[in-house]
Amino acid sequence: MAANTKPTQNGAPVLQFVRNDQRPESLTNDSQEIQAVSEARQAGLKLHILVNNAGSASPKREVTEDGIERTFAVNRLAPFLLTNLLLDLLKRSAPAKVINVASIEHRQGTLPFDNLQFEQGGYGVVRAYARSKLANVLFTMELARRLAGTGVTANCLHPGAVATNIWSHGPGYVRLVFAVARLFMLSAEQGADPIVQLAVSSEVEGLTGGYYERNRKVTPSPLARDHAIAKRLWDRSAALVGLSPDAHDTVQTHLNPKCTCVEVAFSAQHSSPAES
Length: 276
Hints:
8-stranded mixed sheet
């Protein structure tokens, strides 16, 4: 795990936690991340923007030490858990924003709760990825509902087709297609632009529960708009990571998998949100 602080153009510090391990093994008890989150919560800082940008795609079904399917653990449970651990700090810092990086692939996703982690078979790398990104959109919708009236908004987006290394461990046919497709894809810097836009633009100030593509709010898939499924997925996710479905402030024992990149923008306690 690497942690570093760098200032934005207007001087506000950005704290980055980056996990570069290729094979995340466990959701539980990573003491460095727990300590970092605990210190952030107790240091009198304000947290105005939380960007969850975890991304992984396992070519075959594998499970972590916790028995959780790896792609679901990284893409879904990591941002779910970290966000819950930071919710009290976000509320104290309001106005604040949570930005979840999803994908247009969520439109292909399914969510059978009796085979949520492909325990009964049917695993495929694209299928698993689409399911995890559908879960991200549902998480955003349910989070926005739960945060209504707190001054904390939650939105998600598809950043575009970005030429990262997420498919580098995919099966041969995926790597072959990707090798050609990446010639026409966005750079990582270009892919970051819509994330930054959603995080700081005055045009989306106060808006919550939205899904965005090409810097425009669009309607996600019908399944992603099902409130009952969003609530059920929240409860299942909470059980998987050891959280109470309705309580987060006292949880200290878990944090995200090791293959996670989360950027947290902090400001001094008495600075205004406009300065972050």
